Amino acid sequence: MKPPALTPRLLLRAYALGIFPMAESRDDPEIHWIDPRHRGIFPLDEFHISRSLARRIRRMDWRVGVNEDFAATVEACADREETWINPTIFRLYVELHALGHAHSLEVREGETLVGGVYGVTLGRAFFGESMFSRRTDASKVALAFLIDRLRAGGFTLFDTQFLTPHLASLGAIEIRRSEYHQRLTEALEGNASFTPEGYWADPASVAQRRSQTS
Q1: Which structural domains are found in the chain, ordered by start?
Q2: Torsion of CA 71, 76, 78, 79, to 10 degrees
Q3: Which E.C. number(s) belong to this protein (predicted)?
């Protein structure tokens, strides 16, 4: 029996069940559904901003924007030797973005895209998909501004899928699948906004969060 066509709506249902898609490589046409036994998350009150990162944010010679070029952000995330983003996944997330369920946060040096992160929103959950950095600390700056935005928008769950040493150094933790599903259920019961009305990311305020997380 032929499986149903993979659509953005089907993808959203998968996220609501706690599973997400990956390909083995850029050239792998198959989509694999992942539901790890242990899940990485970012507690929104525990992002670690080091002194050097706080100084860079206050100095802020970069510009942070959202949803200015979603496709370019995903392309930049896939621009590496090994990636799980194949053409099907790229298409699906661009379509999710058009539906208002996928967002990007970009860091620019002038007009040049030097860092960023993108993910999917559903209820009060943000599912972080990938990030990239073309300048030192650009992805850390993106995460700092992203978490500030998620807090302002009323999100309660930031899913990182897996826990890497890099994410752990910034405050991410690993929880069991059962606890993740419980948190996900609670997050799906409410509403949040990636672009909350009146919100402006003041670099000084973002950097100030260091005193709350150190």
Answers
A1: 8-213 (3.40.630.70)
A2: 140
A3: 2.3.2.6
The mean pLDDT of 128-147, rounded to a whole number, is 95
Please give, one letter per residue, the 3-state secondary structure of the chain.
CCCCCCCHHHHHHHHHCCCEEECCCCCCCCCEEECCCEEEECCCCCCCCCHHHHHHHHHCCCEEEECCCHHHHHHHHHCCCCCCCCHHHHHHHHHHHHCCCEEEEEEEECCEEEEEEEEEEECCEEEEEEEEECCCCHHHHHHHHHHHHHHHHCCCEEEEECCCHHHHHCCCEEEEHHHHHHHHHHHHCCCCCCCCCCCCCCHHHHHHCHHHHC
User: pTM (2 decimals)?
Assistant: 0.92
C-alpha count within 13 angstroms, C-beta hemisphere, residue 35 = 12
pLDDT at residue 213 in the model: 42
Strand pairing report for 157-161 and 125-133? parallel
In the predicted model, what is the mean pLDDT of the chain? 92
8 A C-beta contact, residue 211 and residue 148 = no
